């Protein structure tokens, strides 16, 4: 049995939106410490690692460890009906096995939705040595990604000690976006070894667009032709991390 309550519906809605960029059916682990999710998208190109400790919730009750699988898109339909300052409570009806979604504010409404069969797959955290760590504003990173999307469907990210360069090339046009260390967009940059890797812009743009609502700061870590890890700094104690596999190019 569990019951979770957040005082601001936007907080829950923004996080659900970020999760929905990769998975439709999400299996959450719920225990006395909090709510967790680690899952890969169907193509197994990207992974999400999400965690909300119980301190984030206005109310949090979990009598025993459990798993709950729900359709995130369907949950979002309900959460979009909640105003910014309205509270949302999630609880499981032990008799029916359905998820109860209660929204309270100007008035109260209660919805129920089915739970799905929970995934038994354990997704391990990728063990990668990163040579680059870049701290950016989510707005600056999002703008750079949008610039690259004007000309191509993939982008090469290169790191040198003083700058981060995003390059995109299409049939007709090309683009080079340079973020200097210490600029308004690139807050910090640590480079143990120069690195470059190419990534799908469709994945990057969806991840950054959705997660930017939860955080003003994003930290990218990568090495040459290795997956990128993107951490979105949370205002509270939560964790929202994405891993994205590179597109391997042949010279």
Walk me through the structure.
The chain is an alpha+beta fold and 251 residues long. It has two domains: 112 residues, Proliferating Cell Nuclear Antigen (Box), CATH 3.70.10.10; 113 residues, DNA Polymerase III, Chain A, domain 2, CATH 3.10.150. 17% of the residues lie in helices and 44% in strands. It contains four helices and 18 strands. It has a nine-stranded antiparallel β-sheet. A hairpin with a 5-residue loop joins strand 3 and strand 4. The longest helix has 12 residues.
**What is the terminal separation in angstroms?**
55 Å
Major beta-sheet overview? 9 strands, antiparallel
Q: Which CATH architecture of the largest domain would you pick?
A: Roll
SSE arrangement, N to C: EHEEEEEHEEEEHEEEEEHEEE
Number of domains: 2
The CATH topology of the largest domain is given as: DNA Polymerase III, Chain A, domain 2
Biggest sheet strand line-up: 6-2-3-4-18-17-16-10-14
Query: Low-confidence runs (pLDDT<50, min 5 residues)?
Result: none
